[in-house]
Fold:
Amino acid sequence: MTSLPTTVRSQAFIDGKFVDAELGALFENLDPATGKALIKVAACSENDVDRSVKAARRAFKEGLWSRIEPRERKKLLLRFADLIEKNGAEIALLDSIDAGKPISDCENLDVPDVVNNIRWYAEAIDKVFGKISPTGSSNLGLIVREPVGVVGMVLPWNFPAGTLSWKIAPALAAGNSIVVKPAELAPLSTLRIAELAFEAGIPAGVFNVVPGLGHVTGKALGLHPDVDVISFTGSTEIGRQFLRYAADSNLKKVILECGGKSPQIVMADAAANLDEIAENLAGAAFWNMGQNCTCGSRILVQSSIKEEFVERLAKASKTWVVGQPTDRSTKLGPLIEAAALKRVLGAIEQAKKDGATVVSGGDQILKETGGWFVEPTVIDNVAPDMALAREEIFGPVVAILPFETEEEAVQLANASAYGLAATVFSNDINVAIRMAREIQAGTVAVNGYGEGDITTPFGGYKTSGFGGYDKGIEAFDQYTQLKTIWVTLA
Structure:
């Protein structure tokens, strides 16, 4: 077992300092690869949240960040990105151990993405302009955007550093102060990144982190009357709670990116590329142990090629090596917690009871480690009304459903409460674009699973959330307030 870096900190980070939670309260953070205690982390209270929000508000009013020249804010954010890059190996190791993520993914995907995201929004600071409205000669209409003030952020555990960067980069670039509540299951990289922000010269109080339990710390942030915006990524159930918190407090803006049950549609006209498609969709289903909101957890295959596709997908699943997250040969690490293991194994058993067929995988493995490991699992003969076809599993399990026509594929794709992402595989561009337009999802990829890049907005339809466009220039809209200045000219 690889040890945590000696630099790891587990206190709260408030007003530029690491501090204990009220009364020294702690919670135990477990190692997903062993099931054993990893470290004790500050369990912030309602009072801790209050002092972090007060620090953020004070910093915002002082204007040392919110009102500095855009080029100065840009320079500091670029320095911040440089420090993350310099300490990238440490941040990757923190996420690998804390969240059970394969170290190769953390090193080669997550940390470079964090650095790129912060640099991209830093560079955008002095390239986003306001407007002048068309008026008569007696008036001047200025349409400007201002930072909203204090932004609360509640993070998921599946991409701790990555999702953090999606939120903090545009919010800080716009001039806001932030209070971040990291996931209790994986808080460590967020604390280190906040420390690096302060080291880069971002003023005290601008970037605060309050680790703790969701029903205490997250709730207190959602209900706080001096938080202007809450940006949340996580389950639909908890997303609904944040809407209630906003209604019960100050009607703060709520940005939600919630769950998904993303359909992956394979048309028969793509049959010549089945090996490539199977490998791509194995990655869509099993990457990050299937613990991904856009996970390609249900594959809709045209009936005439289904049998051949299932055979190739099962073969591709065998290449996903399950092992210790800090081993660079590992492609699939443990699930995040014991409850997740129970949920995923339960979903597999229920699918078998419902009449589905496990083609490959389906079992817990590496039990001797004490960790929560599950084989990549392919399940065929899944009917649309089965729980496996409707519910978000959040594990390395993929369901195969057949269809006959393009219209049936679209109907099956949309027969879900979720609408975060989808993929269409077809060698006919007319078919692909026609289906992409009909599918109810925030991102529809064509001929390759993907979520776009930092230039493209990312968010959902239906119960996958709304307003959660954490990428693209559009993200500035979430963390700024639109204002009209109407001038009467003499």
In short: The two ends are 75 Å apart (CA to CA). The mean pLDDT is 97. The domain at 263-453 is CATH 3.40.309.10 (Aldehyde Dehydrogenase; Chain A, domain 2).
